[in-house]
Amino acid sequence: MNIHGIPTRTLRADPARRAIEIIDQTRLPHALHWVGVGTLDEAAHAIRAMLVRGAPLIGATAAYGLAIALNDEADDTRLDEAIAVLGATRPTAVNLHWALARMDKVLRPLPPAQRSSAAWAEAAAIADEDVAQNAAIGRHGLELLRRLPRRDGRVLNVMTHCNAGWLATVDWGTALAPVYAAHDAGLPVHVWVSETRPRNQGLLTAWELAQHGVPHTLLADNAAGLLMRTGQVDAVIVGADRIAANGDVANKVGTYLKALACADNDIPFYVAAPRSTLDFACANGAAIPIEERDGDEFRLVHGTDPRGTPAAVRQLPAGEAVANPAFDVTPARLVAAIITERGACPASRAGLLGLYPEETA
């Protein structure tokens, strides 16, 4: 996708320096700031503190974090330590553990002297595959969007939640990949972007849509139901942090409410995600761990002061009791289709296995 008209990925690898650069997404949308990551601790911090966010990008960052960890020492003890450190950063996004397991499978049989170069190569393969898979999600999702009736007869109005665009992946995005594909194909499309409190990832969605020239409008989270009820939404597309084997979907908290509103207003609710987000070992949504994040994410509001300097404003006393679950689970019955790199399918075990028959083994 584009920044100032220049095609850009969210993660830049520099194997010669044995480091990577990432966009510090905590600084967006106020400033575009690239951060170097050259140690295991820096990679773990980038994931835990949400400098990188979005399940696919978390997975790719973890893969590179493991490669960085093996730069100078690559015996089994170091490999185990790095996997444990990175694996403990975020509990819900299954792509993290998928990427680490894939790296471990490739690296474990190799002698330590060969592991570093192999780790960099495998991490690069994971990143490149993410780009290709998300582009395919865009193509399959575009076909669904083309079939939708446009309620105002002209512009297709799509709503999304959180950030599931290219900022949440290495490139293209998941939920926004069909939107970008539609825009680039000349299909008139407008995106309703919910703010997604308390981390306001919707602001990142608005920022990247603006960079690519896609018409969009930000709205408060609780305005979504009104827009649906008044006929201003043709479809909702969200990403996912984990999809259980039965089609239940864990995504940013607030997703479930949008799915309920869609069901009440006969609006299709789509989920877009690559294979790495599917967890066939997880029977249903009840088995998905829900991350509870620090309460200060809710107590403090972050932005910039009149001079443009990053600042935080307290909206609640430090001792105020708050709950801050990062995700919720949308039951499969509310999902019109799951869009993957292999196509779209019903949100069910049979539907998912129809696309991934190898998982029956």
Number of DSSP helices?
11
Strand order of the largest sheet: 8-7-6-9-12-17-18
- Separation, N- and C-terminal Cα atoms: 37 Å
**Total DSSP E strands:** 18
Integer tally of domains = 2
Helix content: 25-40%
CATH class of the largest domain: Alpha Beta
CATH homologous superfamily title of the largest domain: Translation initiation factor eif-2b, domain 2
The ordered string of helix (H) and strand (E) elements is EEEEEHHHHHEHEHEHEEEHEEHEEEEEH
Shape type: globular
Q: Cα-atom Rg, whole angstroms? A: 20 Å
Average pLDDT works out at 95
Largest β sheet strand count, sense and barrel closure: 7 strands, mixed
**CATH fold group of the largest domain:** Rossmann fold
This entry's quaternary arrangement is: single chain
CATH architecture verdict of the largest domain? 3-Layer(aba) Sandwich
| Unreliable segments of 5+ consecutive residues | none
Question: How much strand?
Answer: 15-25%
Structural class: alpha/beta
Summarize the entry for a quick read:
With about 350 residues, this protein is of the alpha/beta class. Helix content is about 35%, strand content about 20%.
Main attributes of the structure:
11 helices; 2 domains; Four Helix Bundle (Hemerythrin (Met), subunit A); four-stranded mixed β-sheet; Rossmann fold; globular; 37% helix; seven-stranded mixed β-sheet; alpha/beta; 361 residues
Overall description:
The chain has about 350 residues and is α/β, with parallel strands linked by helices. It folds into two domains: about 1-130, Four Helix Bundle (Hemerythrin (Met), subunit A), CATH 1.20.120.420; about 135-360, Rossmann fold (3-Layer(aba) Sandwich). The chain is built from eleven helices and 18 strands. It has helices spanning about 40-50, 55-70, 75-85, 95-105, 110-145, 175-185, 200-210, 225-230, 255-265, 295-300, 350-355; strands at about 1-5, 5, 10-15, 20-25, 35, 155-160, 190-195, 215-220, 235-240, 240-245, 250, 270, 280, 300-305, 310-315, 325-330, 335-340, 345. The chain has a seven-stranded mixed sheet with strand order 8-7-6-9-12-17-18, sandwiched between helices. Strands 13-10-11-16 form a four-stranded mixed sheet, with helices on one face. The chain has a three-stranded antiparallel sheet with strand order 3-4-5, with helices on one face. Strand 14 and strand 15 (about 310-315) form a beta hairpin. Helix 1 (about 40-50) runs antiparallel to helix 2 (about 55-70), helix 2 (about 55-70) packs antiparallel against helix 3 and helix 2 runs antiparallel to helix 5. The longest helix is centred in the middle third of the chain and has 36 residues, at about 110-145. It starts with a strand and ends in a 6-residue tail after the last helix. The model has no long low-confidence stretch (mean pLDDT about 95).
